[in-house]
């Protein structure tokens, strides 16, 4: 059995691990054009900040790949012929497989601003982006997009001593996720680190001849800039599948936004799976979006796909939603459905907050914590048990995961949410 | 208040560097024969520089400063790092083998020595050493306190090592010496203080009368009662990163170098053989000395004497001192603790097999960034455990808590609690065996 994995991100790596465990006999090959060593994308920022060496970002020591007999090829997949079970590599030519995983991730989307293709406009996804930033060493960087990548870029640049202007189109930070109070905590934290954070700032165009020279806003103002970091979103990296060449070769693979997959993460052709940012669920479970480009999802899908490729009959059944991020020094964890408008209760001391969000029936549906670490197991149990908000409030102290001796969650600071 | 995030030194940080550099130059000059006042001035300048540097961290965000460690010459085995390594190593070599060269320093410290201990004459270099060591712990401890001002765990732990070093390692022995009593270091016992339980050490204590007997009982209780009980309850950290003097220096002065220790499976393998080998060796030497003392066999006496002399020189002086501290900027701050300390070996065995302490991993939240592993001073690949959701139970973990602090996602927590089973018995496997799927 030859399992071919296209991609080197956490989805492909997790699939390879599960495949090897389930099928000690399989031949496993990973293909990536990014290098032989799968690394932690989450660590890119720390390399720029001088906290980690590039070597330290390797997900596993070299012997892991040897011991688990996972072959790695540095090449780029350019075409797929599912009928012939063949992937064509740019340099290596055709490779046949018995099971294929498409885990090519996503790519930053640069909005179609005039000037968007100028030198110095970039996102942050992989080594090439980091290299580009290192080379640019901008003096007047502007970061666009109030999400999780934007704030990472802002921190990276601040640590390297750059003055950062951070443009967010919305009037608060991530309004679909944070209440105005939570947004204020995040904004304070960002500004406290010397970032010129501007809400309600819509980019109209990027100015310059060959290189970025400025950013023009919808209100007419123009910002002096020599580099623009874009964190407005990503899109599945599936162009190599949608290219005419693959259709000509008889590919029946259905690709919409991403590679369309069923509940078992199987694509529309036999022997093909997709996982991670590039996968699009054909019939997602209630409350789950068809594509969800977050790291934890990629890992979970990689595991399901890997087991499926090994012959197991396993559906992708995401448990209670979880995500996390860090805004400079402020950590964020979110569990379940913590919509900002939901009723519930909020604890805050003005620097940190925990919000218990209730569903329509008044039962705990989600938890959003800023600056307070929570124990995943305990919080997920609270949501799964559908506790009342009051009961959840009572149990929350036992779910705090802050370091020993830390003083958190003084009881007097609760108030109703929304 | 706005936090300075940039890596370029702030003005106070630059001032601190100038003060320390000037102090270093004067210190060297006093070795070369400049009058004793020079040494005093050098000491004052270095201390002032250290304190200014500590206070300058108020302008920085709180937390473990990980940014820029690979850009700074001092913390990335650059020229400054090598210079500190050479200076520290040189200091230990001079201390052990050419104490006369330190005349300028011992003369400068003589009045303080006489005031504190009542002693004059030979041996002044050990007072200077003790003074410098304690000062380093206090000044660099102040730096830790400012940097980790948002963490009560780090604050309490740092205050603990500063207090133990100042009181138990410096003031109390001085006072005892002044009172013509044995110079007791109540926080060290055998096998770290290896000759304590040699026949000569026991005889020396017994010769001191009642205080000596009480002290002997204290040291025995420290080893056979306190060590297993406290390690069972809290892990070896109660000693290694809260009490021990070697730990005190590593956690304060050694902090800028914590990420420089050897890592990987080979280092781990070497570490286990070496640290347990040293424990076996000190046990053997102690046993032979007692056998020799009890049997009166001349040849045994000779063998045991030679062995104990070799242990004292190679392990006690060269390993613990010259390499253990001198090589901080090259091999990290815990070289001695990882590879040589027999006390750490005992505590480690207890921690590995009979302790409630572990680092709990928070579900499947690890994002594999690797900061925990990079900043573990013991060279533990914390991420290996974190990314497979397995609690960390390792003999060498001293519970400094930095992994939990540098984790950007709150995945790690130092905890004492009932054994979770798998964490203590699971063998390291080739293939990651964590099923991250929710069933």
How would you sum up this structure, described in words?
The complex is a heterodimer of chains A (418) and B (439). Chain A is of the alpha/beta class. In chain A, 24% of the residues lie in helices and 27% in strands. Chain A has 11 helices and 26 strands. Chain A has helices at 10-22, 44-48, 62-67, 127-136, 148-159, 180-192, 239-242, 244-248, 295-309, 376-384, 389-395, and strands at residues 2-6, 27-32, 70-74, 77-81, 86-89, 93-96, 99-102, 106-108, 121-122, 141-144, 164-167, 195-198, 203-207, 214-217, 222-224, 227-230, 234-236, 259-261, 272-274, 279-281, 322-327, 330-336, 344-348, 353-358, 364-370, 414-417. Chain A has a 6-stranded antiparallel beta sheet. In chain A, strands 3-2-1-7-19 form a 5-stranded parallel beta sheet. A 5-stranded parallel beta sheet of chain A has the order 9-16-10-11-12. In chain A, a hairpin with a 2-residue loop joins strand 21 and strand 22. In chain A, helix 1 runs parallel beside helix 9. The longest helix of chain A is centred in the C-terminal third of the chain and has 15 residues, at 295-309. The relative contact order of chain A is 0.13. Residues 245-250 of chain A have low confidence and may be disordered. With 439 residues, chain B is mainly α. Among the domains of chain B are: 265-343, no CATH class; 356-433, Alpha-Beta Plaits, CATH 3.30.70. Helix content of chain B is 62%, strand content 2%. In chain B, helix 5 packs across helix 10 (245-252), helix 6 (152-178) crosses helix 10 (245-252) and helix 11 (265-295) runs antiparallel to helix 12. The radius of gyration of chain B is 23 Å and the shape is globular. Chain B starts with 10 loop residues before the first helix and ends in a 14-residue tail after the last helix. The relative contact order of chain B is 0.09. The model of chain B is unreliable at 425-439 (pLDDT under 50). At the A-B interface, helix 1, helix 3, helix 5, helix 9 and strand 21 of A face helix 6, helix 16 and strand 2 of B.
